[in-house]
């Protein structure tokens, strides 16, 4: 991957059918549930990217046997019995929020000490709510760096029972607790102390747990255990947003196969936002087609449920004919970077009138000038801003390799749109 990548403008509207790689979020849930299930599970359609390799490494450190068949997008996992497993040493969650926030409660099941750490970027992201929750349910927790941040050590076994956790910073704390819940002696009964963001991800957690034989009732899960299974992972809906956005801004057509009305991923609702802007959307049980109609209106939209697609919308909004206001996403300042600040800074660099709001941003349409975009080690900055280059000449992306976090082949697949 070069240090800087030039995006070639499309010479004709896109007309393509794509199938993005497996969902990061579903892959990492399925890997963890499989690791906690006695017996062997086979996961098909899995994502192979930095975030999921982080989870594969983490569950192997817990003692699971993990066999990769990358060519066939398949992972085979033989699970552990946490009741007879000791601490897992030091686990490197790399840049992955899901790996780290899901692993801490799972590591708290073990009668031993496990340290969870990651990159400098991950060390800057919040962990206080899950560390505090684990203390409430009987785990010993040491904050080895700044309080509320990684690295942190947990020593179980956590006994479970009633636990309180906040919902407004990240839903991953809740998802992680729920997934460890069935292996706790008292099960788990979670109460939220603040409104939940990213709600569809918690529904996804329950759905994946159900596939592995565990029922969550509200936010309560009984003590029990997972069942190993065969599990098919859908394509990644956040990744799909870039291709759907490309159709909308070029007046072309993109069909995403493998994702439709039956999807477990909230981010498929990005297509609804494009529809509100004037694109035409066709949905089947397992496909989504967006057709650009040649005109896009700005929208005023709350993206608290689907915030990984907010940067995609920012790029699309540049080509609308009225302003777009995105609300409800103040919490994305705590993701890979301050995504609100970063997207506004970069659009302004291209001469676009973009404004930072307390809970989101406002984008006024305009003609972007040739620009070298910074990407802040954030895969979604790189993937989103590249869309601008499909319409405007002279767009360059710094550090395009950062897409490896969730979509290593992104720029190859984007270039294939023009062929
Ligand atoms: O549970 C998940 O798989 C995720 C939840 C969301 O995070 P937050 O709950 O922190 O918003 C999302 O942004 C992230 O990419 C994946
Ligand atoms: C926020 C993201 O990832 P995570 O929180 O899992 O690191 C993302 O993929 O956009």
From TrEMBL:
User: A Gene Ontology molecular-function term?
Assistant: 3-phosphoshikimate 1-carboxyvinyltransferase activity
**One GO CC term on file:** cytoplasm
- Residues recorded as binding 3-phosphoshikimate, renumbered to this chain, are 24-25, 29, 170-172, 198, 308, 335
Name the InterPro entries for this protein.
Answer: Enolpyruvate_Tfrase_dom, Enolpyruvate_Tfrase_sf, EPSP_synthase, EPSP_synthase_CS, RNA3'P_cycl/enolpyr_Trfase_a/b
Q: Has the keyword Transmembrane helix been applied to this entry?
A: no
User: What are the recorded Gene Ontology BP terms?
Assistant: amino acid biosynthetic process; aromatic amino acid family biosynthetic process; chorismate biosynthetic process
Its recorded reaction(s) are:
3-phosphoshikimate + phosphoenolpyruvate = 5-O-(1-carboxyvinyl)-3-phosphoshikimate + phosphate
The UniProt entry annotates the active site at 308
Q: Which Pfam families match?
A: EPSP_synthase
Q: What class of enzyme is it?
A: transferase
Look up the EC number in the record and give it.
Answer: 2.5.1.19
Alphabetic keyword roster: Amino-acid biosynthesis, Aromatic amino acid biosynthesis, Cytoplasm, Transferase
Q: Which family does it belong to?
A: Belongs to the EPSP synthase family.
Write down the NCBIfam families for this protein, in alphabetical order: aroA (TIGR01356)
Protein purpose: Catalyzes the transfer of the enolpyruvyl moiety of phosphoenolpyruvate (PEP) to the 5-hydroxyl of shikimate-3-phosphate (S3P) to produce enolpyruvyl shikimate-3-phosphate and inorganic phosphate.
- Which PANTHER family does the UniProt entry name for this protein? AROM/DEHYDROQUINATE SYNTHASE, PENTAFUNCTIONAL AROM POLYPEPTIDE
**Oligomer status and interactors:** Monomer.
Name the record gives this protein: 3-phosphoshikimate 1-carboxyvinyltransferase
* Underlying gene: aroA
